[in-house]
Design a protein that fits this description.
18 strands, 9 helices, seven-stranded mixed sheet, single chain, 2 domains
Length: 415
Amino acid sequence: MFACLLIICCHGKNHGMTVRPYLSQVTENSIVVNWHTADPLESVIAYGETAACELTVRDDAKTRFHSIKITRLKPSKTYYYRILSKGHMGIYQFRTAVKAGEEFFFAVYGDTRTNDQNHIHILNKILRTQPLFIINTGDMTMGDDEDDWHRYFSVICDKTNVGETIPIYSTMGNHDFKRDLYKSLYLQYLSLPINHSDNTEAFYSFNIGNAHFVALNNYLSFDPASPQYQWFAEDLKKSAPYKWKIVFIHEPFYSSGKHGGNMHQRRVLGPLFEKGGVALVFSGHDHLYERTKMIKGVTYVVTGGGGAKLYNARQDEWIKVTDKSRHFCKVRIAKDQCEVEMIRADGTVGDRLVLTQHSQSLDRSSDFEQPKNRGTEEDSRQTLQDTSTAWQRFLYNLSFIFSSGGHPFLSGKSS
């Protein structure tokens, strides 16, 4: 079984490797293997269907940041690989993506920052669920500096072997860049899909089985005239054949936690989700677990319990479940069913949701009876509701000042 990974670690001298292999961009027929070396070297990988690793792929261009795509693989197949650059390294395994219609599992978590022990504990729990891949909802580091990223890679590679065996996708958190997003170490170190004219990994999409996944970026404009919005609208049209459409973005649309929901993105992107048939939206930013009721066919999940200090939450009318615990989400995609389980760090299940194509259709159909254009009276009610929500967030944040001895903003610390 995949849980019984064959990992032959190479102790002592690491042959110039500063970051051990980490996987990304898995498809039915390919995968990307990444690693870093202290000196510029050629990139060489041996791989195969047995531990003999009888095939090789290489790039003779010398670099410190290696990224090799292995192609011509078989779907739903386990492969072995090892890095050959400057000496033989450990032997690892990976699995290729499933074909359309086949069932698969993946995991979602976020907001680990540099809380390494908590992060390690969550990843070890994730490993037991044997996911095909992992989605990180952002804030993988505390400040996008070299030390933070070395700690991140040390956790996912050296201390858990997750990076070497399970592909990881992510979206950028507010702690994952500094002033210039495009110069971030996040974009330099991570190898993510590029599938739009902007030629950036800051937002992207990919397909696995019957599901279409979209990573959106909070820190680039998503207003209707922006490249990100235009790309996303077109991407949703192209994804029509896929039964399940799942979005991940760092800041939540709905949240009763410390930061609250991002109302601007709710107004701008929410209608696209509803029209485009998005079923699930995962986010982080607030360090807790929260799931909304189905809102116009879309279920919103906050999963920010990957390691950072946890936040309090309050009850609200649109909340179905809230839980202040470190956790991750295990997601199962089947033909006409999508199942989400929130699993706490202690292994207990805190929430379980089963979505079907039929339940989504019923929820969306009820919205079609509403008028497309709001009248003046409805606009006024919406303004009052938004103002009320803003005051609730203000008063809730004010409570942190008195309960915790000071607010991060007042103390000059980022949150």
